[in-house]
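Hi, here's the filled form for the chain we discussed.

Project: internal
Contact: R.S.
Residues: 468
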Amino acid sequence: MSASQVVTRFAPSPTGFLHIGGARTALFNWLFARHHGGIFRLRIEDTDRARSTDAAIDAIIDGMSWLNLSHDGEIVYQFARAARHAEVAHQLLASGHAYRCYATPEELAALREEQRAAKQPMRYDGRWRDRTDYPNDAPYVIRLKAPREGAVTIDDQVQGPVTVNNAELDDFILLRSDGTPTYMLAVVVDDQDMGVTHVIRGDDHLNNAFRQLALIRALGWPEPVYAHIPLIHGSDGAKLSKRHGALGVDAYRDELGLLSEAVENYLLRLGWGHGDEEIISREQATAWFDLAGVGRSPSRFDMKKLENLNGHYLRAADDARLVDLIAGRVAAALGRDLADSDRALLQRTMPELKKRASNLNDLAGGSLFFLRSRPIPMDEGAAKLLASASPGLLDRARARFAAQDDWTAAALEQVARDMAESEGAKLGQIAQPLRAAVTGSAQSPGLFEVLEVLGKNEVLGRIEDALA
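And the returned structure, exactly as it came back:
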């Protein structure tokens, strides 16, 4: 790796699914690295052993794979590097940049209570900072001897220059009394050892950056470039929650039936822009992405906009791919496996089906009537249409279609138009009851395209079932 090569990382905690905000952070890191011909690394911050689970790790990796966010090199597991983190803490202790603190939990609780009563900021007061009268065999933590004078300014690539007085920072713990490293220490050591040059993450980590920078400077390590991205809010401006659509990435795929390219495009535009461009391909995003395009204000999550975008990508998607994506949903609804002939039928109907669908669930639901065995079920809308049709209409329609040899959509539409004209009716008065009889619904893709795909025998059989 060259000294100037960009290295970014995505570092989720495996305490739950890959949520939508985390997915956007991963995407921004991936795009920044790829734009600069750099490296994108994945680190699993699994130091919270009580809450970290293998299922959550699998969900994170699966979600990133679905979004095509491939990482470079092996995945780094933070917990496995605990010995390296402890080594650095002792290195700081030896160099005088850290110290042993023997304050007991009871002392610290009393200190916090005093500060709370005096309405002071709650932070460690440095009582062991300059002491050397260490008690024998008593447990201790290792704390960073943070600078107390002056101020630190971070020239954040999104937030702009941000300054914090060193007096506001405390001597935070590096190594706990049981020898385990803290998050602050582990993150800094891992970023250094992974060669991370740019730390791109949510702005809820901005305060952490000042503590981490104090540690980096104590170690004399290269300082990364920071970019803290505003968080995603709900459509009402409140903190994003499940009611706004803050689901796991897997839910957007499995429950909502969205396409990965639509979710990616939406996340890209959620806080970043390139002129007035809305539909942005992966190739364009890689060419255009930069941190200057990231806004400073929280973006608002709009599920309706995401669904509209998904509809666009659905209509542009390859038909065979869509058949593969809905096959499981269709099979589950029918209660049987799909035969090759079923898949072939779905592929023939896909150009019409996807015109009306906004997600894979719509697509699967809209295709079911093609594959159901006779007699097909009728929904309430279809039953009403059949009940309100003029007496004998279906009988007469069946006779006309039975006499038809040219079974193409255009020819079948002409049959219906001729019938409407001869009966002094509008086309809809013929087409709608026919739609109900053949599809079992008041809505479907283009009726005459449906008739063509189903074939003459199936259509006549379904009309007979409706008559019965």
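Let me know if anything looks off before we file it.
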